[in-house]
């Protein structure tokens, strides 16, 4: 009897250690995603335009998608996503990407991918068990740069706009054929059995403290867009006042 109790205790300890190890990997993924988004938004001529972020329903980030010329190897092809809720950005969820025939580009060691998910329909794709880019969810390469026009069609019918970059360079890869599915093991390690993808993205569970750097990066990206819009509108208003004064 005592031996059985000891064995059960050891098994319980082993499962706890395994869960903690998985959770550390999830936290590391969140931190990498935060850095990837910050680096993309720090490039004035290549960052996501403000009018695109304004219409974003969700943001999904996959850090280091390609490495060493291999696709989805090791820790690659794993990302995090968050959606807008009535109280702000939701607790992040974890997902995986696999498949597709888009390949890689010669000389590229790693690619960071940011997906801007648009509208309620786009959000529903993230809530589903899986979906394929280009077939189940239309995807297009998103426009870049602070001078991108709001009046350009922008392929705005696409549910998902993709932004891929490596070493500060925008690559413009579409990722058609890649399958996106929830990373349920990572989700359980972070939130427990009740922390499903839908509950997280719908704002039904609070973000964990470990998600703070990632959510700060998301809010920072949104803040840059708001500041840019405000500055541009202020410049337009000032120019209009000068033109009116000159006319008189």
Q: How does this structure look, described?
A:
The chain has 248 residues and is of the alpha+beta class. It has one domain. Helices cover 42% and strands 21% of the residues. It has 6 helices and 12 strands. The protein has helices at 2-41, 50-54, 119-127, 184-191, 197-201, 212-247; strands spanning 56-62, 66-67, 70-71, 78-85, 88-89, 93-98, 112-118, 131-132, 139-141, 160-166, 169-170, 179-182. The strands form 2 sheets. Strands 1, 4, 5, 6, 7, 8, 9, 10, 11 and 12 form a 10-stranded mixed beta sheet that branches. It has a two-stranded antiparallel sheet with strand order 2-3. β4 (78-85) and β5 form a beta hairpin. α1 (2-41) runs parallel beside α6 (212-247). It is globular. The N and C termini lie far apart (98 Å). The relative contact order is 0.18.
